[in-house]
Amino acid sequence: DPYSTDPDIASLRRRLQAARHVLVLTGAGASAESGVPTFRDAQTGYWAQFSPEEMASEAGFLAHPQRVWDWYQYRRDLIRQVQPNAGHVALAQWQGRNPGRMTLVTQNVDGLHQRAGSAPVLCLHGNLMENRWLLPPKPCCDARFTEGDAPPQCPGCGNYLRPGVVWFGEALPHAELQQAQDAAKACDLMLVIGTSGHVYPAAGLAHIAARGGAHVVVINPEPTVLDSVADQCWRLPSAQILPALLA
Ligand code: BJW
Fold first, then answer.
1. Separation between Cα atoms, residue 130 and residue 167, nearest integer Å
2. Fold held by 37-81+128-165
3. Which ligand 1 atom is nearest residue 46's CA?
């Protein structure tokens, strides 16, 4: 059964041990068991409440800077209060025991892989805890004088600070994406963990790996659009199954 809630862990463990290079792609589901909401889960995901175009695009930010800034501040507060889960830890420990054999690529901006001890981590969608200028900064740009909870803004030219994440329509960090795509071509095993697979170019990594002949395993309690490129789908929560797989 390629769609399994009772998978053959021993056989995938053997594949892992035999693999020359393993690519791991994680999405919001990898942090769900830490208490971080996903984006697209029907009841609990952010997009059940907010529209993606309004909250995660430059146009949305410019239309409603306070609303978007508040959402990011709320998420920053949340991230400070949660901990990496057993899935993050299992990935970090495997990576630590097998130097150079795993490329860990994440779409998550929450820093939980890094806090679990993973290094290196290729972050395709940036970092929630960082800010950068919306427009290229001029000599006047200084946001220190912004008051209260307002989105930080330069009093001289009006330029805003914005979260250091990748919004829709924006390019992913070039070096990270290139390394991830190279790993997708080179890997013999890919684990696709906790992502709905809707967002490109991240989701394209699974297609590249499959085209290159890698064995692709989706780990997700729900069906996803990437199941069709996978050799096996494990319909299980990642923090529950990764410790057994990667121990
Ligand atoms: C569990 C679990 C448990 C639950 N265990 N699992 C048409 C076709 C193709 C592409 C496009 C198109 N139209 C437009 C595009 C491009 C666009 C895109 O892909 N859009 C599609 C949505 C249609 N992509 C872009 O715009 C990207 N940039 C780009 O293409 O640039 C081109 C360019 C080049 C040069 C110059 C300029 C431009 C950028 C994409 C940026 C995505 N940003 C976001 C927000 C980040 C900031 C923030 O955090 O606020 O990234 S969107 C959001 O989605 C976030 C995520 O990283 C990303 C992926 O979501 P993810 O991680 O998959 O989460 P969910 O919620 O979707 O899924 C969670 C899964 O977990 C579910 O399946 C659950 O079942 C599962 N789960 N519990 C395991 N315990």
1. 14
2. SIR2/SIRT2 'Small Domain' (3.30.1600)
3. 66
Ligand 1 center to residue 61 CA distance, Å? 18
How far lies 97's CA from each of 87, 90, 115, 217, 246, in Å?
16, 11, 17, 21, 10
Binding site as annotated, residues: 72, 75, 107-110, 194-196, 220-222, 238
Q: Name the architecture of domain 1-35+83-125+171-247.
A: 3-Layer(aba) Sandwich (3.40)
Dihedral, 204, 205, 211, 215 alpha carbons, nearest 10: -130
**Ligand 1 atom 57 nearest Cα:** 107
Atom of ligand 1 nearest to the CA of 72: 50
Residue from 128, 199, 205, 224 whose mutation best tests the ligand 1 pocket (most atoms within 8 A of CB): 199
The pLDDT value given to residue 6: 82
Round to whole Å and give the CA distance between 236 and 75. Answer: 26
pTM over 0.95: yes
Rounded to the nearest angstrom, the distance between the alpha carbon of 197 and the centre of ligand 1 is: 7
- Binding site as annotated, residues for substrate: 72, 75
pLDDT along the chain (247 residues), means of 10: 81 96 98 97 89 92 96 96 98 97 98 98 98 96 92 96 97 98 98 98 98 98 97 97 96
